[in-house]
Amino acid sequence: MGAREQILVALDVDNLPSALRLVEQLREDVGGFKIGLELCTHVGVPQALEAISREGGKVFVDLKLKDIPNTVAGAARALRHPGVLMFNVHCDGGLAVMRAAATAGRSGEYRPLILGVTVLTSLDEPTLNTELRVPGSLSEHVVQMARLAQTADLDGVVCSAREVAVVKAACGADFLVVVPGVRPTWAGSDDQRRVMTPGETARAGADYLVIGRPITNPPAAVGSPVDAARRIIAELSE
After folding, report:
1. Of residues 34, 58, 64, 168, which has the active-site annotation?
2. How many domains does the chain divide into?
3. Catalytic (active site) residue 64
4. Using one digit for the tens of pLDDT, what is the confidence trace for 86-115?
5. Is residue 133 in a domain?
6. What's the angle, vertex CA 187, arms to CA 124 and CA 205, rounded to 5?
7. Phi then psi dihedrals of residue 237, to 5 deg
8. What is the pLDDT of residue 143?
């Protein structure tokens, strides 16, 4: 996979025209686009998916499915769409939920990649231990969630850049790792806590990098979203 294909741009906007402007600008320079709760709750998943697909964008549907197995299976069936590159489900929903997503998501003509969300990149170890009452190290918990996802026959997981190496060591090089919260040195960390640069993340073994604000709203000194994307591609290609 080339550097361009590794980049998935997060379309964290609240309206379809803004999303489509970014798709039109960036589709030749990135591998695809992530749509999440903000856009999907304002616009609707089918409308966003159809419109982005028409513009030539491959889509990561980032809804982090978590419900009873039957409900998650129904949602997974709805995401069997030719424009869907991947979608995700929360690992802490358990094996039955992930297996339901895997079975339903692969039962049609189109087979998107299915990922398990391990621990949100906005969380750190004290929060995991104190607020959520999950003992032990954060990296150990991420690995446990990744192994559970692999047992459920998912294609890979979503985790922070800091856990990529341990997940690959535990689950193998072919187990996909998608990393959100990637921040170049010229961009702020915003509300993400466990972050690394694009180059560091790729060297750790990440397969896909989800990058939002550094590309969609780059610092003035960097230039346009296309300039930002190409600057990241250059970093990944070094």
Report:
1. 64
2. 1
3. yes
4. 999 999 999 999 999 999 999 988 899 999
5. yes
6. 60
7. -85, -10
8. 98
